[in-house]
Write a structure and sequence with these properties.
Blueprint (H helix, E strand, L loop, with lengths): L5 E4 L1 H5 L8 H12 L3 E5 L4 H11 L5 E3 L4 E3 L5 E4 L4 H11 L5 E6 L3 E3 L4 H10 L4 E2 L5 H4 L6 E7 L3 H14 L5 E6 L2 E5 L5 H11 L7 E5 L5 H4 L4 E4 L5 H4 L4 E2 L7 H9 L1
Parallel strand pairs: 1-2, 1-12, 2-3, 7-8, 12-13, 13-14
Antiparallel strand pairs: 3-4, 4-5, 6-7, 6-9, 9-11, 10-11
Helix pairs in contact: 2-11
Amino acid sequence: MHPYSLICCDIDGTLLDSDHTISERTKRAVRAVVGRGIAVALVSGRSPQSLTLLQEELSLTGPLGCFNGALSLDAEQHIIDEQPIDYRSALRALDELAHTELEFFLYTNESWYVQAHNRWYDSEVALTGIPGTIAPLRELESLLEGDEKPFKLLAMHRDRFYITDMTGELAAHFAGRLNIFNSHPLFIEIMAPDVDKGRSVRAFEEHYQVTRDRVIAIGDYYNDIPMFQAVGLAVAMGNAPPGVQAHAHQIAPANTEEGLARFLESLV
């Protein structure tokens, strides 16, 4: 029996190369580890719809950690854990963002929304292939119907120094009420409290009754550190910042050097 039974893999900067595509070598490597009986879970800030498209490209089935751990699905797409943002907190955050220079999206379990068409909208559609809905976000309760719930706000700005300043301000303002962090130098993630990628990993371990020593996590940014802390083997990409690599047991080559494929090949 292989010593590992589950790999939790980040997407941007890890699975995807610098062109935001999955190389053929990586696809072969993923199929090879699955063939050895190792499940592969995609764990990302992305939506379930976006991750499902990537699974299809990989010819992969397996659990999904969506919205940086706020929504965890099993291999049959059933919810095993969820922590949406409550409506009042979401509205307060939207009101606060409206008084800044930040652009922002709202993601739900069913769709994503933006105030107005802009270049960030175009970038998101180009990246994920999933069109969003243009709507007045501060009318949130009238937008969402049925079982649709808000899971994430994503704020963006082209100036990384402005992002740093606003991350600090928002984190201080919503301390204890929302979890606010960076998933990219130009992005601010706004989530429910107690949400991070480690939450999804622990949900998988409990659901599938897998001990942490049999789980690998691989990623490239600061939001991957909680995932590293929930597993037996943490692998940082060569393109990860030093502060991320310091939390890993092993460093793989960069995503521009087929790093994920090369690491997976070493397992088989």
